[in-house]
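Annotated sample (chain length 480).
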Amino acid sequence: MPYKNMHQFIDALEKAGELKRITAEVDPYLEITRITDLVSKEYGPALLFENVKGSEHPLLINAFGTFKRMQMALHCDSLDDIAARIEKLIKMQPPKTLGEKVKMLLTLKEVGDYMPKTVRSAPCQEQVYTDGPMLDRLPVITCWPDDGGPYITLPLVFTKDPDTGIQNCGMYRMQKFDNTSTGMHWQYNKDGARHYRKHKEKGTRMPVAVALGGPPAVTYASTAPLPPDIDEMLFACFLESRTIPMVKAKTCDLMVPAESEYIIEGYVDPGDETIEGPFGDHTGFYSAADTYPVFHVTCITTRNKPVYPTTIVGKPPMEDCYMAKATERLFLPLLKMVVPEIVDMNLPLEGVFHNCALVSIKKEHPGQAKKVMNALWGLGQMSSTKYIIVFDADIDLSDNSTVVWKLLNNVDPRRDLLISEGPLDALDHSAPFQNFGGKMGIDATRKTREEGMGREWPEEIVMSGEIIELVNKRWKEYGL
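Output written by the structure step:
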């Protein structure tokens, strides 16, 4: 069964040998980062720090930090299983027979049954604080030596479009300034920033609610690259195959997940902005300080015995890599729907998911690889990808040795490189301007004469199937 809340997830991790409790006192200033960084680089367990200096609340980190734990979080044996469910929905065809109609009705009913539902009372509101220690109650960590301050790094930020009333949930880091204020680091292309610009134009105060913890699928859903105005909580319901209970926040007109550990309520005033950062980011470099809105806290509600969830980012691999890998697998069917020749995709951890995309395609005509490059550069978050390398369908994109071999042997630099420019990720420090710079596509597919290949493409060396089978059968005889 899916996890009702974070405590059930912690119990499951512990039973699976995927969690380590640490009772020694640890400092939220850099010490937790150092411990977690060492553990994550060794693909170690989730860590539950039970004695954090200066706070009564235990702290959970690295909970999503391996493929196994990411699959546990989404309650699946393979991320591709969820991708197959998504693909089944988007490929649904009009029914032609009575059996097909019944099957479609059952599928639609299944999806319709899993919707967020409103509840009157919730565990996340068992304790209510409107004065005294507010953010100071939380064991907010300072991740890296040159960070601008301590950061809330795993927040689910709920905002509402002032024109349509449609809610959005996104994950944006929050630098703690003091007991009742933080930065709100939503980049220009995020829905939270779009809502803020609308409030700014209207001159109206923007209500914001921030959830921490809850069912792990809810946390993941807040990071998913959904189209604008698609409810992330609806996506969480789909992932969990169940309803997600939501409750109205105490001091603002926003709905929040009822099983959260904490809800931080407040507002952003239009034009109230200040310097936020620097921050040691998932690129492995510090992102520069810049001007962002200020979030003012009016209320904090919690469970009776909350656990503070957090994460750190830095040189990969780290916990965020596995969350991003889940996005790669889950959203591949949607990508293939728009660019149907795509067979597979791999976003290498070292490319931090916006610097490099490896793509395999079913090539059927000249120039198809470059067509795919341009198509991907025109799609949502893929538009910020700096390098796109396209291979034939017969390659395993997870086999790094074969990928590099094909790349180095199949490419003529003058013929097969496509240099372009356009939007880049805000964290790309190599770009000449923020959010804008050069891009390169590389065609590593087999070339045809129409693509400028002036001679026959050679056949790849492959052993005959009969000999492979023979050697496999006799392997023990060889004494090897």
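Annotation: Residues 6-309 form a domain with the Pnp Oxidase; Chain A fold (CATH 2.30.110.10).
Annotation: The longest helix spans residues 98-113.
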